Amino acid sequence: MIEQFFTCPYCWQEISMLLDDSIIVQNYIEDCEVCCNPIEISFEVFESEISGFQANSIEQ
Length: 60
What we know:
Layout: E1 2-7, E2 14-19, E3 25-31, E4 38-46, E5 49-57
Antiparallel strand pairs: 1-2, 3-4, 4-5
């Protein structure tokens, strides 16, 4: 598991999340722990480190 810090795209608070580094590419929805809005989380793992990370609003 890798801890990743990022800013919520809704409330702009810095939050942290534990990411599972055993799967190389992941994309899922998780609620912000501060404002409870849904965030689309996407990341890639390379050699046990995060090589790309995005936390986006699901609003179009």
